[in-house]
Each structure stands twice: as C-alpha cells, then as structure tokens.
C-alpha cells in the first residue's frame, strides 16, 4: 500500500522542454505542445524538499556602484553590419547563438569574423562539427580568411573541445554547430534535447569563467524556429537569425534577443562568390534602373528595424480568361494583396474582379509591413489604367478596410531616406507630418483616404514640372 502511494505522489513523466508533468506517457506535451519531448522522469522521488550544502564564497557581495564595467564593454568584430546588430560588438563572456536555414551563409560569415579577429592580433579557435578541416580551409582560401592565429579543430566531443580551450586559451570561440556536439556524460544522440542542453550549459560556464566570447551556430526547424530545447535560447545572451532567399544575394541579420544591445537593428549582407560583404546602403538593390518609367511600378520605404529601405513594388493587371482570376505574388503577402484589391474595387471604383493581378518586388525583397499598402494600391491602379506614375514618387501608408489611409511609424525617417535617394514626390497619410517636417526639395501630399491618394497622384502625373521647396499639399 505504501509503495502505491509513493508512486502516485510523483508524476512518472516530464516534458524536457517546459517541465510539464503527467502520470502517463503522451506523445505531445499538454503545456508547450511539443511533440516527442515527454519522457520518463528518472529523478529522485519523494515529496520532501531538496536541500543544498553551503559552499565557500568566490567573492564578497559589493555595492553595485563599485562594480567594474570596463570588462563588460563590447569589442568590435571588424564586420560593421554584425556590430550594428550586436550593439557594438562582442562582450567578453557573452554567448551568441546564430541560427539560420542551411546554405544561407552562417559558416561563411563566422569564418570571416574569426579571420578578422585573428588578423587583429587575437587568438581564435574555430571548431567545426559538420565539415572536415580541409573543407573549412578551402572556404577560408576562397574568402581570404587565412590567419596565423586562427586555429581550426574538427571535433564533435564536448570533452575534447573543452580540452582545446584549456590548451589554446583563445580570445574567441566559434562552434559550428551546437547540434553536432555530444557529451559522453549524457545519454542520447547529438542534437537531442538532453545533449544540446548539456553542451550549451558547459560552454556557457566556460565562457563566463574565462571571460571568453563564444559564438554558436544553431540549426532551425522547417518552421524557422531554433532547433533543440527552448531553454537554449534562454541560456545564451544573444540570439540572432540569419535570413535570406536562396534565389537572392541579400542576407538579413536580426537579433531576437540581446542582453547587451537593441533588438530592432538589422544587418544587411551581400552574398558573393568571394564571401559575404556588409551593405551599409542596401536600398539600391530593391530599385530597378529602367530609364523609361512604365505603368504598374511604385516605390515605398519600409523599416527593417531602425533602417529604412526603399523598395519598388511592381504590379501587372491583365484580362483574365479564367472563371477565377489569378492573384499571384512574389515578395508580398497574398492576403494583403487580396485586401487591397477589395478596397480598391469597393472604395475607389477600380474594376479588377475580372482581371489577373500579379505583384512582385524588385531584388527579391520581402515586404510584410502594412506601410507598403499604399504603394501596392497605386501600382495596381497605374497598371489597370496603363498610366505611369511620376518617376520620383514614393508612397507610404497603411490602407484600411474603410478606404482610409492610416499613419505608420517613422514617416519622417522614411521620407529622409527617399529624399537622400533623389525622390521628389511623396504621398503619405494625412496628419503624419507636421509643418516643416517635409525634407527639403520634396513635394509631400497628405491623403486621408485611398480615393484622395489616387487623385493626388494623378495630379502629380499631369504636372509638367516638379517645383522644389519641400511644400506640403493636402
């Protein structure tokens, strides 16, 4: 009887991701909804609370004003776009997790970072668990990343990697990748929940003790999330996502977690045959360079974090031979296009119900924010009426279901970027700019609804010459 009571006092199964407990095995966690994470709880039973033995103190507690902060300041990596995302560079003792899809360029970027650090006089240990040392050497030759103090090791055992740390005492550790390393003290295959947790915890402990910055490469699932236990993202200091379309050269680096800097900065890179190059001014990648402006094109300025990017939206409206006309998009959300088309037909009287509509962006850019709705609508109207918009026009604003144009964040910053690129016309939501905020030399028209925006655009198209002075028309 006592044995049965003891067994029922403690749940027999526990989720390795979130700690949810249950009395019987299930394939999916009832708390975090993760598949395959529930396993038998082999921990000690009993309802009595656990106790810990007091250990000697490493150092006495001190007033917070006496803590030295110089050792916690960031050091630049030599890659400006990476430093922008990290908040200035790598902090001693910080652990950075860089995740991304296969082939996006994670290893190439970190090999370049390691070579720049080694060229600057620091000792760098680059541990590869996915490739052989010869493969990494060939990539280093291709991108010019050979340095005397860049040490390379092809290892997948955690104990061996810690031994390399003790032997080389590097100033920077790069591990590619954390899912390929396993510890002999923990059961399970590399990449499993227990193994990833043990490897990450051991490397984080070594980083904090030595003041060693560590960069870990992480795999992602088919949904784009970091593979492995969720606790991995909680343990590290910085989590970065490296994104990019396989058919485009542009790569974007975002920080989803950063204990030392902002999380709204975006780094832009260009993937070339000779490696990855940072782009301080990537706006030109998303604009076409046609001399003769054609109907169906409109430029908008999106915000990637704090960075404004000018992006050209192209639309093609053609008669349909099908009962259900096509709605095809590339780089634009299909649901946003469907909503904008419905508003155009209902509020602006544009007949597109029997037309095929194709919308795309230039340069493989992805436009997901609502601030591009107005440019999408004006490009569609231009293509449907076969009338080109002014060649130096930008449109910024969110389109509502009632036909109103709603203000978006950072309008002044977007217009300043457009003016820097040479644009002289702009259509923005009414009330988004105060008097005198329009950039010099730009004519800014403020529209309250979609119909007014179309009329103002037609008026600018018919205007023979564009006056300067940064006036604002409403």
UniProtKB/TrEMBL annotation:
Record carries keyword Metal-binding: yes
Q: Which residues form the RecA family profile domain?
A: 71-220
For binding ATP, which residues are annotated in this chain's numbering? 100-107
Q: Name one GO molecular function term.
A: damaged DNA binding
Q: Which InterPro entries match?
A: AAA+_ATPase (IPR003593), DNA_repair_RadA (IPR004504), P-loop_NTPase (IPR027417), RecA_ATP-bd (IPR020588), Ribosomal_Su5_D2-typ_SF (IPR020568), Ribsml_uS5_D2-typ_fold_subgr (IPR014721), Rubredoxin_2 (IPR041166)
GO terms of biological process kind: recombinational repair
Keywords of the record, alphabetical order, are: ATP-binding, DNA damage, DNA repair, DNA-binding, Hydrolase, Metal-binding, Nucleotide-binding, Stress response, Zinc, Zinc-finger
An example Gene Ontology CC term for this record = cytosol
Q: Where is this region: Lon-protease-like?
A: 356-474
Name a Pfam family for this protein.
AAA_25
Q: What is known of its domains?
A: The middle region has homology to RecA with ATPase motifs including the RadA KNRFG motif, while the C-terminus is homologous to Lon protease.
HAMAP family membership: RadA_bact
The record's family statement is: Belongs to the RecA family. RadA subfamily.
The role this protein plays is:
DNA-dependent ATPase involved in processing of recombination intermediates, plays a role in repairing DNA breaks. Stimulates the branch migration of RecA-mediated strand transfer reactions, allowing the 3' invading strand to extend heteroduplex DNA faster. Binds ssDNA in the presence of ADP but not other nucleotides, has ATPase activity that is stimulated by ssDNA and various branched DNA structures, but inhibited by SSB. Does not have RecA's homology-searching function.
Entry protein name: DNA repair protein RadA
Give the organism, scientific name: Cellulomonas triticagri
Task: Report the gene name.
Answer: radA
């Amino acid at each position: 009887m006592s044995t049965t009571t003891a067994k029922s006092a403690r749940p027999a199964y526990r989720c390795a991701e979130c700690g949810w407990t249950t009395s019987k095995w299930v394939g999916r966690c009832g708390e975090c909804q993760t598949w395959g994470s529930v396993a038998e709880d082999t921990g000690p039973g009993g309802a009595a609370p656990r106790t810990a033995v007091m250990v000697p103190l490493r150092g006495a507690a001190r007033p917070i004003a006496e803590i030295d902060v110089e050792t916690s300041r960031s050091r630049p990596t030599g890659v400006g776009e990476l430093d922008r995302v990290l908040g200035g560079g790598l902090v001693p003792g910080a652990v950075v997790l860089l995740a991304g899809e296969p082939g996006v360029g994670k290893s190439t970027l970190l090999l370049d970072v390691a070579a720049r650090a080694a060229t600057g006089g620091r000792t760098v240990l680059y541990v590869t668990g996915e490739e052989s040392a010869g493969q990494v050497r060939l990539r280093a030759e291709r991108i010019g990343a050979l340095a005397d103090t860049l040490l390379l090791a092809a290892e997948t055992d955690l104990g061996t990697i810690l031994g390399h740390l003790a032997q080389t005492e590097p100033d920077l550790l790069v591990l590619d990748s954390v899912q390929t390393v396993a510890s002999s003290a923990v059961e399970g295959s590399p990449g499993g929940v227990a193994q990833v947790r043990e490897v990450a915890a051991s490397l984080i402990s070594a980083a904090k003790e030595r003041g060693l910055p560590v960069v870990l490469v992480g795999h992602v699932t088919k949904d784009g999330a970091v593979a492995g236990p969720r606790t991995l993202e909680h343990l590290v200091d910085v989590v970065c996502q490296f994104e990019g379309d396989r058919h485009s050269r542009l790569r974007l680096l975002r920080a989803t977690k950063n204990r030392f800097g902002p999380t709204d900065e975006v780094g832009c890179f260009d993937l070339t045959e000779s490696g990855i190059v940072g782009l301080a001014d990537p706006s030109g990648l998303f604009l076409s360079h046609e001399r003769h402006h054609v109907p169906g094109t409109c430029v908008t300025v999106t915000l990637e974090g704090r960075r404004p990017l000018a992006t050209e939206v192209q639309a093609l409206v053609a008669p349909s031979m099908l009962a259900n006309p096509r709605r095809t998009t590339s780089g634009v959300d299909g649901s946003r296009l469907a909503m904008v088309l419905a508003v155009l037909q209902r509020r602006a009287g544009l007949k597109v119900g029997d037309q095929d509509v194709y919308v795309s962006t230039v340069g493989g850019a992805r436009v997901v924010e609502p601030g591009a709705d107005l440019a999408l609508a004006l490009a569609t109207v231009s293509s449907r009426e076969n009338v080109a918009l002014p060649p130096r026009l930008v449109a910024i604003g969110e389109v509502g279901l009632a036909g109103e144009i709603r203000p978006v964040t950072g309008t002044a910053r977007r217009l300043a970027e457009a003016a820097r690129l040479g644009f002289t016309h702009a259509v923005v939501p009414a009330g988004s700019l105060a008097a005198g905020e329009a950039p010099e030399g730009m004519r800014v028209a403020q529209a309250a609804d979609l119909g007014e925006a179309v009329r103002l655009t037609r008026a600018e198209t018919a205007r023979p010459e564009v006056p300067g002075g940064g006036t604002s028309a409403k």
